[in-house]
Amino acid sequence: MRTAIVTREGFEKLQQELHFLWREERPEITKKVAWAASLGDRSENADYQYNKKRLREIDWRVRYLRKAIENLKVVDYSPEQEGKVFFGAWVEIENDDGQQLTLRVVGYDEIFGRKNYISIDSPMARALLKKEVDDEAIVSTPDGDKCWYINKIYYQ
Description:
- By secondary structure, this protein is α/β, with parallel strands linked by helices.
- The protein has helices spanning 8-37, 46-71, 123-128, and strands spanning 5-6, 73-74, 90-95, 100-106, 117-119, 136-141, 144-154.
- Strand 3 (90-95) and strand 4 form a beta hairpin.
- The longest helix has 30 residues, at 8-37.
- The protein starts with a strand and ends with a strand.
């Protein structure tokens, strides 16, 4: 079960995506499907088949976004969070090998297409929560426990 929370920025992006799909892309694809269907034989019409498939994908995503937006709780930054890792924090961490990462703890619906965003439900985020600068975070992985040190915490 994933936590149904989102940052204000993430919520606005989901709303923009829904608006774009429903108000702009879907009407355009619908016109293409109607035009391709008017050409006749649909079984061998690549334009018809491709756009019909795209229309199904759009409809699926629109249904998902409507349901997700309805159920998500927007979590805004609070000054009490300063100095500790909470939802929405940017965290710079480093391990014993000197590998450094900068991550942002966000909701599940915000992580796609962003390699430096991690879900609040991920093992890394769970290990980082409520930690402060210079604290250790032990992350359980399939290869065993890994230790990360927190170098910096900031909020946008």
